[in-house]
Specification:
Layout: H1 2-10, H2 14-26, H3 31-51, H4 57-80, E1 88-93, H5 101-112, E2 116-119, H6 126-136, E3 140-144, H7 148-151, H8 153-163, E4 170-173, H9 179-185, E5 189-190, H10 194-207
Parallel strand pairs: 1-2, 1-3, 3-4, 4-5
Helix pairs in contact: 1-2, 1-3, 2-4, 3-4, 3-10, 4-5, 5-10, 6-8
């Protein structure tokens, strides 16, 4: 059953994912098990395929729609079972930058991996990142930039978070970035692609499972 859900998700077959999830629910399979062993496991496979260039952005987007269709069937049951998300990630493109394709892809992959996402959009000021992290009890903050002229603002955001007493990990990504740049600005991680971002966030949340607010 779970393999069939995963395969339907990878094929982007929204109707089949919905049907299989409904079938599993009617068989009294716990919603958390359907989520973890069906939908999340399928998205994990998708991430590996994307990382290995076996599939590309259009396939990821179609599969993510299938994932959301299945998740919508499960959400009321997950609430009943008091199933908590793996963590909360506040993500946005930094001030002065209006590019969002990479940021959106990372948000999709993280949501598929079981995280709650607070998507701040583009052109986001340090103050907005601080407010989102503090008010939502974020576990990780994700910063995106596509322009070399805007990536310099990432350090200001990290400094603002620390000044506000928020010690949560910050991860950064975008075409002009490197691990060396991430290290120099005090970020806790750099991801070159969306699948790597999920792996990175998983490791950071596992090491630091508490809320970002002090």
């Amino acid at each position: 059953m779970f393999d069939r859900i995963q395969n339907a998700l990878l094929a982007g077959d929204k109707d089949e994912v919905e049907r299989l999830v409904k079938q599993a629910v009617e068989a009294r399979t716990p919603a958390a098990k359907i989520l973890d062993e069906g939908l999340v496991a399928g998205m994990d496979r998708l991430g590996e395929m994307f990382k290995n260039n076996e599939i590309f952005i259009p396939e990821v987007l179609v599969a993510s729609r299938a994932m959301q269709a299945g998740l919508s069937k499960l959400e009321p049951l997950l609430v009943e079972e008091n199933v908590q998300p793996r963590g909360l990630v506040a993500i946005g493109t930094v001030k002065g930058d209006l590019h969002d394709i990479g940021k959106n892809l990372v948000a999709i992959m993280l949501r598929g991996a079981g995280y709650r996402i607070v998507d701040l959009g583009t052109d986001v000021s340090p103050e907005k990142f601080v407010a989102a992290a503090r008010d939502n009890g974020a576990h990780v903050v994700g910063l995106s930039a596509l322009l070399t002229t805007t990536m310099v603002h990432m350090k200001s955001i990290i400094d603002a978070l620390r000044s506000a007493g928020l010690t949560l990990p910050v991860v950064v990504g975008g075409a002009p970035l490197t691990q060396d740049f991430a290290d120099r600005i005090g970020a806790q991680g750099y991801a070159p692609d969306a699948a790597s971002a999920v792996t990175l966030v998983n490791s950071l949340v596992a090491r630091s499972p508490h809320s970002g607010a002090k």
